[in-house]
Amino acid sequence: MRIYVPATLDELDTAVVGSVTRWPVGPRGAHAVTRALAGELADADDEGREYAAFLAAADDSLSLVAGRPGVPPVRVVVSVDVEQDVVGVDPEGASASSVLVLRDVPDVPLAAVHVDEPTAADDVRAVLAAVDADDDEALAEAVQRVTDRDLLWYDPSEVGQIPRP
Q1: What is the pLDDT of residues 2-11, one digit of tens each?
Q2: Residue pLDDT, tens place only, 27-64
Q3: What's residue 17's pLDDT?
Q4: pTM of structure
């Protein structure tokens, strides 16, 4: 089962050393094409549903960055394939694609990594500043700028070459 794991760049740096293309996934929230998502997007094809799950993971990555001061201010989504019994539906998830990784999976091959380009860091910082200032209008504008950006795709062998902001 393909899951899209919201992450931060420092998590990726810590877990992936050199050209190693495997990543440990522990219990945490992630996103996948669930029955609920398939029901919501009944007219979409598999690729459209996967993209919706991926975008939800990107949104959650932004929340992770907001909750961890000092991490590089870019969104990161790590795509991995795990056995279906490792994943359960997240009953408290904000999205129909929300799932929980139920246990440690120590050595998962990376399928792909998606990261904001370094210039997105200013927009992510604007989101953080708007949250700190409790400015809803500025927050909405900054979130829109961030979510208008596409994350860049990296092959697992390129993780060490991802540019930093």
Answers
A1: 999 999 998 8
A2: 999 999 999 999 999 999 999 999 999 999 999 999 99
A3: 58
A4: 0.93
20 within 8 A of 158, measured Cβ to Cβ: no
User: What one-letter code names the amino acid at 106?
Assistant: P
Say which residue, 85 or 17, is predicted with more confidence. Answer: 85
Give the closest residue to 40 by CA, choosing from 111, 64, 112, 31: 31
Contacts of 34-42 with CB under 8 Å at 24 or more apart are 34/89, 34/96, 34/97, 34/98, 34/99, 36/89, 36/96, 36/97, 37/95, 37/96, 37/97, 39/96, 40/96
Quote the pLDDT of residue 91: 87
Q: Which two tokens stand for residue 9?
A: 């760049």
Alpha helix positions (H), 16-160? 35-40, 46-67, 121-133, 136-147
Distance CA 94, CA 90 (A): 9
Could you tell me the two tokens for 50?
């996967």
Question: Which among 74, 90, 104, 75 is positioned nearest to 32, based on CA atoms?
Answer: 90
